[in-house]
Design goal:
This protein has 928 residues and is α+β, with helices and mostly antiparallel strands. The protein contains 17 helices and 53 strands. The strands form twelve sheets. The chain has a nine-stranded parallel β-sheet.
């Protein structure tokens, strides 16, 4: 009908009129399209609120993040006051057109895009002028990785030094045909934005075309929409769940010592998240920035993250996956694969803050050995020091410690001690220390070497640490390396403490009291993120050093997040110099992006509560994402007094932590396993023996993490991302792809509800299969039971356990074959001497593959064989899960296995008395 009307209408008109009509029609259509896309189609949608200013229907960006907003202040900021029935959502929000617009052309560079953007004139905030012009650079770095950097034009800003974290360009940019992403810089109104989409389906994984982008000296803000509200990461905090609560939850990121009873920022800074999309794909986004910040999480239907950062630059790295496991792996490979720990570090460890003297340590060693418990390392906290002074040994109370260490080494066990940052500066007390430790010269030598942090007047600043008033070393200064190594060697040689690894505590850095700091823009910035959980605690310099102090890597205001990171690097290098043929092992409390390349991590001062036992699982899984393959929490809890059932259940859980250590505080009863009754020992010993039996598998996982960036302890969603049921599970976890642990985490719990994703799953001890899968099962879990299940399709190397890893490594080996639905399975074993520096680089290592490409045939074959110790290892037993009946005609390289050596134990088949050399190519066959 419309076409008929137009034809008849044009019949009597002149050509000029027709042309004018067509031009008007085209303009009208163009205007309608623009109105549609700007005001209707372009999410977020807009409405007018209180005076006609257009505002988002969502996401909302808070224009008054400080407490107690009001309409007057909101109006002065050029924002919109809105009424909301949701108490958590903001009342003062940015209006459309608040931010920047592209000026000029968007330039294609050799490896991406570049554009200049100009600020849309809006009122200043926080007494700080907003930068008018910014330069936006997009780098296509790999097929799955891109970088987005936003900096003010012609203005120098603090950037994370390459010495701290250098994410290098891998070479030539990837061709467009191979990239997993496309990038759009939004040039038109109402404001500039960057949109990163998946190539093929246009899912926007990163989208900042929202109002509120702000870039001033001490306040940077940007918001990105998320493709889903399945968000994980950001640390370090006490997260009560692994998948984030998106209901306007704010998390601050700023390393700090604070009680774990508060769900606020803790010791480390990891501004990185993983987003799981609704189809099971995932991406990882890192903001490479060391300044204090907070992130605000916004719920569906418009899930989003708002970053508020008080310094540095906006420097994003996006990793496209496409699977969540691949995205995390790409991130870890970029920041540096986890350090390879020595084999003995995977054993069980005991420590306490509260040993009165060396006799207490001897008592722990004796009772643990007498109980026959697996036990590889004894740790000591600060009590060994003379009046808590680092690099000293209290000769009166701890004079026999060298003999105790010698005894540990004689039993092939190890010794680790703690070191804090502060260097005693009290002259009177230093004289006293020298009577105990004649060669002690830490402070004076540090002054001579110029390694301590100073103020603007070039004076060394002092703070109160454990020994009293002390200077704070600058671990970001290259000069500090020699001074730090000299003190390490003095402790090892002169004080005769033959440690095997070092434990770095209080390195956020955290004096016992706050320093008196000048009132200036650094110590009192115009905006302070919620870094303490309350208005009283939310000041930057509470229980730390002043923000205006300068370090080699920048003012403490800018580089605080790097303090523990720098100490970890220097300590790693120091151990490498001390023991050039041995693998350094450093344990740190504070960390930043990439610290896992130099140190492992424990979760700090947790508590002996049932809440903390759950938090430990969430924390360890998160730090696996952050690039720490080996990490753990204090078993039974550090603070408070451990209760019997809690401590027992925690040992059952902690036996499967990558780092397994019992540690508690002073003035409470001891909680090492041998300090309890015989029943406790009888229940805990088998699960620790299970850990030691599985160490070949766990060590292989560590190798895969170090070489390829895999996670060791991880959430179920990483193996089963398409299964929506796994997305919120944080009361169970996986060790690698093959072992599922479902711990009891509540008091008086005798039934654990455990979810089993679609696969074949077998109970570890009995071999019984969980049927059906892809559902939740109620597992009877009395106090002596541990829920450990093996996933079908995997071959797991095991070794007969002993009470030390040294002894265990010499014992006969075995393999577990867990058959999948096609009766197939595969696995790998990594072997080396367990402590040499580069043996894991295939120089002196052996890699054995276990492969079943067809039913009833397992091929054992080495891929690399450079570790001579592998020649003395033999497989003595094979256990098969999922066969359900005794096989016939079992053969090893065509030689029949005698029938009495093939038995059925409950639901698993065991083939005994084998003598298969681990490095020989061997084919094992059977028929059923």
């Amino acid at each position: 009908m419309h076409s008929v009307y137009f034809r008849s209408h044009f019949k009597g008109e002149s050509m000029k009129s027709k042309i004018i009509f067509i031009i008007i029609a085209v303009i009208a259509v163009f205007i309608c399209v623009q109105v549609y896309f700007v005001f209707l189609a372009d999410s977020p949608k807009r409405i007018a609120v209180d005076g006609g200013q257009p505002v988002n229907i969502g996401p909302f960006i808070d224009c008054h993040p400080e407490k107690y907003p009001d309409k007057t202040t909101c109006d002065l900021r050029g924002c919109v006051w809105r009424k909301s029935n949701d108490d958590n959502s903001p009342q003062c929000v940015y209006s459309i057109g608040h931010g920047y617009l592209v000026r000029g052309e968007i330039t294609k560079t050799s490896n991406g895009l570049q554009a200049e953007v100009e600020r849309i004139k809006t009122p200043k905030i926080y007494d700080s002028e907003i930068y008018d012009r910014l330069v936006v650079t997009v780098e296509y770095q790999t097929e799955s990785r891109l970088r987005i950097k936003i900096v003010p034009k012609d203005v120098d800003r603090y950037v994370v030094p390459d010495e701290a974290l250098n994410i290098r360009l891998p070479g030539k940019p990837p061709p467009a045909s191979s990239r997993l992403y496309e990038v759009t810089l939004v040039k038109g109104t109402p404001q500039f934005g960057i949109i990163v989409t998946r190539k093929g389906d246009s899912t926007a994984v990163f989208s900042t075309d929202l109002p509120g982008m702000t870039y001033s000296d001490q306040f940077l803000q940007i918001t990105t929409r998320l493709p889903s509200d399945n968000l994980y990461g950001f640390g370090e905090h006490n997260h009560s769940r692994f998948r984030h609560d998106m209901n306007w939850k704010t998390w601050s990121i700023f390393p700090r010592r604070i009680g774990r009873e508060k769900s606020v920022n803790l010791y480390s800074a990891h501004p990185v998240y993983m987003n799981l999309e609704n189809d099971g794909r995932g991406s990882v986004v890192l903001l490479k920035n060391t300044n204090a910040m907070e992130v605000v999480l916004q719920p569906s239907p418009n899930p989003a993250i708002t970053y508020r950062v008080i310094g540095g630059i906006l420097d994003f790295y996006i990793f496209m996956g496409p699977s969540p496991e691949q995205a995390v792996q790409q991130y870890i490979q970029a920041i540096g694969e986890p350090v390879m720990p020595p084999y003995w570090a995977l054993g069980f460890h005991v420590c306490r803050f509260g040993y009165n003297d060396v006799n207490d340590v001897e008592a722990v060693i004796k009772r643990t050995r007498a109980a026959g418990l697996p036990y590889d390392a004894q740790w000591v906290d600060i009590e060994y020091k003379y009046e808590f002074v680092d690099f000293t040994l209290n000769k009166k109370l701890w004079g026999d410690l060298p003999k105790v260490i010698e005894d540990l080494h004689g039993h092939n066990q190890k010794f680790i001690l703690t070191i804090d940052p502060g260097s005693l500066a009290n002259r009177k007390k230093i004289k006293k220390v020298k009577l105990n430790s004649p060669g002690y010269n830490v402070y004076d030598d540090g002054v001579l070497q110029d390694v301590f942090i100073k103020n603007e007047s070039n004076q060394i600043v002092l703070a109160k640490y454990w020994p009293g008033m002390a200077a704070t070393p600058d671990f970001t200064n290259p000069k500090t390396q020699g001074w730090w190594l000299k003190n390490m060697e003095y402790l090892y040689n002169d004080e005769n403490i033959k440690y095997d690894a070092l434990w770095l505590d209080k390195n956020e850095v955290s004096p016992r009291d706050s320093m008196k700091c000048s009132r200036n823009k650094w110590n009192n910035p115009p905006y302070v993120p919620d870094v303490g959980g309350s208005s009283e605690d939310s000041i930057l310099n509470k229980n730390t050093i002043c923000m205006d102090l300068k370090q080699h890597w920048g003012r403490h205001y800018d580089s605080r997040a790097l303090y523990g990171h720098g100490q970890s690097i220097l300590t790693y290098n120091g151990l490498l110099h001390q023991f050039p043929r041995k693998r350094p092992w450093v344990m740190t409390r504070s960390s930043f992006v990439g610290t896992g390349k130099y140190a492992t991590k424990w979760m700090g001062d947790n508590r002996s509560t049932w809440a903390d036992i759950l938090w430990s699982v969430i924390s360890i899984v998160e730090f696996s994402m952050f690039g720490f393959a080996m990490n753990g929490a204090d078993i039974c809890g550090f603070g408070y007094a451990a209760e019997y059932e809690l401590c027992l259940r925690w040992h059952q859980l902690g036996a499967f932590y990558p780092f397994s250590r019992n540690h508690n505080t002073k003035k409470k009863r001891p909680q090492d396993p041998a300090s309890w009754d015989q029943r406790f020992v009888d229940i805990v010993k088998p699960v620790l023996m299970t850990r030691y039996r599985l160490l070949p598998y766990l060590y292989t996982l560590m190798y895969k993490a170090h070489e390829e960036g895999h996670m060791v302890m991880k959430a179920l969603l990483f193996e089963f991302p398409a299964d929506r049921n796994t997305w919120s599970i944080d009361r169970q976890f996986l060790l690698g792809p093959a072992l599922l642990i479902s711990p009891a985490l509540e008091p008086n719990q005798t039934v654990v509800e455990a979810y089993f994703p679609k696969a074949r799953w077998y109970e570890y001890n009995q071999g019984s299969e969980i049927i059906p899968s892809a559902r939740t099962h109620k597992l009877y879990t009395p106090l002596e039971v541990v829920n450990l299940h093996i996933r079908g399709g995997h071959v797991i190397p095991v070794q007969q356990p002993s009470t030390t890893t040294y002894q265990s490594r010499q014992n006969p080996m075995g393999i577990i074959i867990a058959l999948d639905e096609n009766h197939l399975a595969n696995g790998e074993l990594f072997l080396d001497d367990g402590e040499s520096l580069e043996t894991h680089k295939n120089i002196k290592s052996t890699i054995v593959q276990f492969s079943m490409s067809k039913t009833g045939e397992l091929v054992i074959k080495y891929m690399v064989n450079n570790y001579t110790g592998a020649d003395y290892l033999y497989i003595k037993t094979i256990e098969i899960y999922g066969l359900n009946k005794i096989p016939v005609d079992v053969r090893v390289n065509d030689a029949s296995v005698d029938r009495p050596n093939i038995i059925m134990l409950n639901k698993l088949i065991q083939i005994q008395n084998l003598n298969i050399k681990i490095t020989d190519t061997t084919i094992i066959t059977w028929r059923t």
